[in-house]
Structures are given as structure tokens and as C-alpha cells.
Amino acid sequence: MENFLDYFSKGKFVLTYCKLCKKNIWPPVKNCPNCLNTTMRKFPKQSIGTLLDVSYSSKDDTFFGVVDVHNIKLIGTIVIDTEENKEKITNLQYGVKVKLTHCGLINNGYEIFFHFVIIQ
Known about the structure:
There is one protein chain. The protein is mainly beta. 12% of the residues lie in helices and 44% in strands. The protein has a five-stranded mixed beta barrel with strand order 4-5-6-8-7. A three-stranded antiparallel sheet has the order 2-1-3, with no helix packed on it. A hairpin with a 4-residue loop joins strand 4 and strand 5. The longest helix is centred in the C-terminal third of the chain and has 8 residues, at 83-90.
């Protein structure tokens, strides 16, 4: 979908929705891949999801996770923003609730990034 990268460059999360199939579609596209109906842009006010899988990179000292948010799967960084969350991450269990806090573009606009924090 045209301009969807413009939204990410401004830190705004956008996805598309098919009224006919009643499904969110990722990545954003102009037509639904299931029924070819024209999709509409959707700007969720809050994006809370469920952590499905987590991995740790010792090279970057960073946790990455697969998160189900709005019935789509996103891969992003699990940000450790408090001591409490640092403790939670060491005992991380699947199914933990996380919130999308930042998104945007890196590498001259060639990659989208997502940052999540633990809320549960």
C-alpha cells in the first residue's frame, strides 16, 4: 500500500483491514490476498499482544520476540525499561502480555523495527 512506509517513518503503526473477510492484513496491501477486495488502513490506538516466542542475542545483549498483536505476528525487540521487567525477562514465559511502544524505519528506510515492553 502506498505511503505505509511514510507512516512508519513517523513512528505510526499501520495495518490494513478487509471488511469482507473481517481480517487484519500484514504487511499492508491495497487488496486483500484472500478475496481481492480493496482494503482500508487501520491505525490501532493501542497495540497489546501476546509473546509467542523469545530469543536472546548475546552479541547485542538484546531479547527478541515473536508477538501476536491484532491477530498478526510481528518480530521485535523486547525492551527492558525497568528493574522489574529485567527480573521478568529472566523468567520469561510464553503468553506474557507486551505492548508495542515504538516502531519505525532503520537502514535508510529498508527495515521496519518494533519495540515492545512487558506489561504483565
